[in-house]
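To fix ideas, we reproduce below one chain and its tokenised fold.
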Amino acid sequence: MEARYNLKSPAVKRLMKEAAELKDPTDHYHAQPLEDNLFEWHFTVRGPPDSDFDGGVYHGRIVLPPEYPMKPPSIILLTANGRFEVGKKICLSISGYHPETWQPSWSIRTALLAIIGFMPTKGEGAIGSLDYTPEERKSLAKKSQDFCCEGCGANMKTALLPLSLDSQSIQADQEAKELARQISFKAEVNSPAKSTNEIPPTSASNLSINSSASEQENFAESVRATSPHATTGEVQNIAASSVPELPAPTPPNNTSVSPRQRRAQQQQRQPISPGLLQAQQPRVNTSNTGSAVLIVLLTLALAALIFRRIYLANDYIFDQEL
């Protein structure tokens, strides 16, 4: 596989390193790239204990962009589980639906732990999420152990090590829960279901500015990775031009305005009526016409004066000759 890819590419280097780190399965997760595609991985995760998914073993795909780790991967579940739709990209702050919250320091292992910790949470209408009943999820957890992937040949009965209670297993559970709390908070902030009126104007403007700065920083890092000889100024200019300018925040309404100030604001906001525009239009045309007539009259007067001077000069010369 190494001969097919550019080993100098940051994405290839990163994926090769992660493939070596995740080569051996654990009792919680396992992931490896396909033999013919380094940018498509198949993973297996165990359902979190003390939940509706306890005992389940779930399989899925991770599709990585060429700009990885500057851009997030897409995550797709292949095993029915009652929490995520099968065969559809799921919407998390670690997936391609939220590139503004992705951090290049995260890895495929981070995504696997986040999936485990996020499974017991509520879907709340997010893309690719499901809210099955506990009974249905427990039934799917038992059936998941019989799943066998046709793409990579993984068998859920042997894909992971037997569950243990050692320190590494406990640490993995704690990391999964911590990531789930972070992802839940970010999903709540960026959720499109919430009305923008619920966020104070100052908080909304700060969130937009932070998102824009994050996008510029991620794009700048991508430019540095693809163009190592570019100067810092060129990278900043390219990153700044790639992110659209944000509209200025609307100032909040001030309820303590005096009646005189309120009338003045209403007069300023009052639109100009069409009749007033029609009444003002002839004035502009008349002024322009008057200026043109005045210029013509001045030109004629100047011409008449010049002709008169010429006539008097000729008359004087004629008198001299006589």
